[in-house]
Design brief:
CATH class: Mainly Beta
Largest sheet: 7 strands, mixed
Number of helices: 0
Number of domains: 1
Structural class: mainly beta
C-alpha cells in the first residue's frame, strides 16, 4: 500500500512558515489531540512553498512533536516531506485532498 509520495524539497526557491505550529485536533468535541504511532503529539505548520516558475502555495505540514523556533516569516527546511492522497465520506458527502507530512520542520540555517 502506498504510504505517501516523496516530495523533492531541494528545488523550492522558498519554504517559509506563515504561522506558528499548532497541535492537530482529533476530536473537536473533546479536544483530544492527534498523536503518531509512537504517542507524540502531531503539530501542523502552514508553509509557503515556491517551486521554480510558480507563485507559490501554502501547504499545511503535519509533523510529530512541536517544532522549535518556528514562527511566522521564518525560512524552514522540511525533512522527509511526503504527499498523502486521501478521501473520506462524511454525512453523505465525499471529500478528498492531499495531506502533507514531514519527519521534522526545522528553522533553515
Amino acid at each position: 500500500m502506498l504510504r505517501g509520495i516523496p516530495v523533492n524539497t531541494d528545488r523550492f526557491e522558498t519554504a517559509m512558515a506563515t504561522a506558528p505550529p499548532s497541535p492537530r485536533i482529533k476530536d473537536r468535541d473533546t479536544g483530544e489531540l492527534r498523536v503518531d504511532p509512537e504517542g507524540r503529539t502531531l503539530y501542523q505548520v502552514p508553509v509557503l512553498v515556491v517551486p521554480p516558475g510558480s507563485d507559490g502555495e501554502v501547504i499545511r505540514v503535519s509533523v510529530p512533536g512541536e517544532p522549535t523556533g518556528v514562527t511566522a516569516g521564518v525560512p524552514v527546511r522540511l525533512r522527509d516531506l511526503v504527499a498523502v492522497p486521501w478521501e473520506m465520506e462524511r454525512n453523505g458527502h465525499l471529500r478528498w485532498g492531499i495531506a502533507f507530512r514531514a519527519s521534522a520542520v526545522e528553522v533553515a540555517a
